[in-house]
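Regression report. Comparing outputs from two consecutive submissions.

Submission 1:
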Amino acid sequence: MARNNKKRRKKKVSSPRVPVFRYFVVLLLVGFLLFVSGRKILGLIQNAHYFKVKEIVCASDTQFDYVKKFSYLRGKSIFKVNLAEVQKELQWAYPQAAQIRVARRFPSQIVIELETRMPFARFAMQGVNGTIDSKGYVISKSIDGQDSLPIIVGFSVSEKDIKVGSAISSQALKVAIKIVSEFNRIGALSSYQIQKIDVKNLSKINFYLTQKFNIILDQDNIVEKLHLLSAVLSRAKLDIEKICYIDIRFKEPVIKTND
């Protein structure tokens, strides 16, 4: 019986120890070799002649002479060009630009895109003249060559707040911009052009047309009142040459003639 019991007992098989530490060392070594190899491959790619900057491209309607300053980038690895620094330098040189983008175009080009602000109106204030876009951003502190644009007067801000590339913060100026914008959108008014707009008093805004008469309105319901003006000017019996002013602040427009 004792012998049978001994036979029935299963022999304990000792499992071999897994050399975990050895595997860890091997994996660490393989990872290190891959890292070193990857860095070498990356270095070879970055310094390859194929990826050297060969051209600075200005992808804009207007070619900016300042772009020539970045000729020093030619021959440099396209991967090592600091795009943020290039963009910052362009923003400093062209504050009048609405948007600036700098990008890599592989394998060998740096592309610079500058979106320029379009002249919308002139302004004259406290001896300071300038040109703005349709959002009130100052494009230039000059009105030379912009005689065809309407001139906005009557608003007041500190001269130090008028900076090229920055918007002028003025409610009166915003109202003037809206009047000019909405006026230009109405097809029936396309034969007329605003020459000057005075927003000194927002309850009695005067704007003068090239036809030598002026329109009076206020800052409320601008779109509606300009459509009313369109209806008035389209009257067949209206003698434009005799008009002194048209006041459209009220439900019934007031037409003053030079009788």
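Submission 2:
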Amino acid sequence: MRISLMLLLVVSLGCSPASSIIPTSDSTTKVVQKNTFAQGQIFQLADPVLSLENGLFKESTKVTLALHYPETKIYYTLDNSEPTSSSQLYDSAIQIVQSGTLKAKAFHPNHLPSNIVAVSFLKIENPISTKSIEVNATPHENYQGKGTKTLFDQKKGSLNFRTSEWLGFKGEDVEINITLENEHSIKQLVVSTLRDVGSWIFPPAAIEIWMINNGQTDTLIAKKEFQKLEKAPPPSLKYLTLDFPAKSLKEIKIIVRNNGLIPDWHDGKGTPAWLFLDEIILQ
């Protein structure tokens, strides 16, 4: 998966940068700045271009960072703290072996530093085989991915929600019934989602995991609710994690609650929010 982010903010003295738009082989678009700024102009550095090899991995993955502007240095962190010029200096591809979040920021001696760019990644510790999967909601005809197997193929979607890695649901809660090949001790549920408020795609209101009891009332194992958005943050890939005491399970029900109606501060206020899912992980 390739994430290309470049944003250049200019405090103008009457001149703006020249740029060219170059389509790439992986359907992303890269904006290349030619850095033709007037002498003495103060500007903020573009955001580093961040590329992640695999958002979901079993052994390891790699992150690369780039910003082609003379004398620029990129610093990064892996502990979720904000990078400063005292953080780890980027000089080559970063080998990732644990789940976490990488944050990076570009610095220059004569210009304002860039914004922070970030990406999260998840290590699949013990893959669990499923026997059957039933989704009790119908994805929109334009966002059907590869069917139910989309949720368990261990392939992370990109910010482009139109790819086959995503299932898109409009205004519905999504209930997923899973039968595992064998009984497993499980202590964590991860729901991988997309947040793209500008496209009316909101994060879930809550996630739940239930134990299915044959012929009896299902048992709620754990539930986590999420705070409603009060403004439009940048598009982001999200891993929503629900931890609970280890429990031996074979038949499971997962419920992902839709955000409901779009709030009043948004242009789409009062209409059903979209919910996009690309992966369910049990560990």
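Expected: both submissions complete independently.
Actual: both completed, but the second showed a warning that disappeared on reload.
Relevant detail on submission 2: The radius of gyration is 21 Å.
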